[in-house]
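Structure (tokenized):
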């Protein structure tokens, strides 16, 4: 396999074969994200992608999942994606799921029929970063997409039948937006009702604009207790069906996992219990 630069994948694709269909992210402007900063975006040559799949076939006996990277591989033309999906089906008959990163714009640029055809040819899951449902925060982080567009893309993904996994980031609005971030994000999730919601916690990357804002005192990081209060408010305001919720990434202070709405009370109790622990209190209140 040939990999260019650092390669990222969602936590649930940890055991997947990763194949780069694109290099970098076409947007590459989010102020908190350093993932593809060093890469100039381009779509890889189809032959190179197919060659990588062929060489992986020679090397690995049993591949259950394949993930198409980098940032927004759904940007590829539908015809090219179909060639890749059909090639995977031919040479990896044992593969059960193919996943891809998809920006809201990538999803909206495809017709519903295109998405359905991709599903019929093996595309099993799309990962879309929502980050926040609050318009001010989306503007501040230069996500390049407003909440209405997020919802439209999410609804279209759901309608296509391809599983939709979305991510949000705790603390992304800093101390000024705890309530707005939690409640507006819950509203967007309620509209979309994705199959999976992943809640990460903001981790500062040194080579980002947000980090510079933080160093200059223009952005305040949440304390662990504030992150949990924000998470609690978010979960309290969710109203979804059969939505798998995960907040069990290395960035999270406590590990939360369940299916919403069914497990809502249990998750809220787990947060309440954690909030009683000293380590989540602001330093001045520990031991009290
Ligand atoms: S968060 Fe996603 S869309 Fe934004 S720059 Fe990073 S990879 Fe690109």
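Design, position by position:
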């Amino acid at each position: 396999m040939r990999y260019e630069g650092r390669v990222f994948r969602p936590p649930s694709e940890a055991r997947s074969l990763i194949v780069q269909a694109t290099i970098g992210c076409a947007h590459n402007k989010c102020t908190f994200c350093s993932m593809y900063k060093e890469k100039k975006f381009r779509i890889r040559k189809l032959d190179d992608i197919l060659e990588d799949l062929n060489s992986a076939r020679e090397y690995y006996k049993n591949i259950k999942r394949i993930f198409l990277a980098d940032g927004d591989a759904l940007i590829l033309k539908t015809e090219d994606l179909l060639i890749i999906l059909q090639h995977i089906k031919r040479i990896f008959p044992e593969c059960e799921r193919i996943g891809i990163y998809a920006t809201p714009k990538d999803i909206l640029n495809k017709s519903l029929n295109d998405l359905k055809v991709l599903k019929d040819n093996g595309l099993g899951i799309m990962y879309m970063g929502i980050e926040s449902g609050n318009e001010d925060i989306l503007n501040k982080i230069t996500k390049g997409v407003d909440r209405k567009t997020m919802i439209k893309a999410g609804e279209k993904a759901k309608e296509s039948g391809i599983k939709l996994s979305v991510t949000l980031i705790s603390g992304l609005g800093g101390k000024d937006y705890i309530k707005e971030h939690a409640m507006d994000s819950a509203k967007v999730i309620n509209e979309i009702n994705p199959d999976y919601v992943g809640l990460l916690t903001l981790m500062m990357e040194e080579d980002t604009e947000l980090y510079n804002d933080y160093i200059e005192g223009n952005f305040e990081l949440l304390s662990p207790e504030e992150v949990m209060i924000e998470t609690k408010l978010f979960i309290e305001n969710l109203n979804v069906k059969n939505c798998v919720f995960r907040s069990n990434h290395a960035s999270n202070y406590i590990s939360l996992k369940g299916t919403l709405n069914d497990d809502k009370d249990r998750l809220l109790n787990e947060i309440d219990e954690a909030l009683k622990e000293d380590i989540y209190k602001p330093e001045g209140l520990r031991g009290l």
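Reviewer-requested clarification: The chain has one domain: 11-285. The first strand starts at residue 17 and ends at 20.
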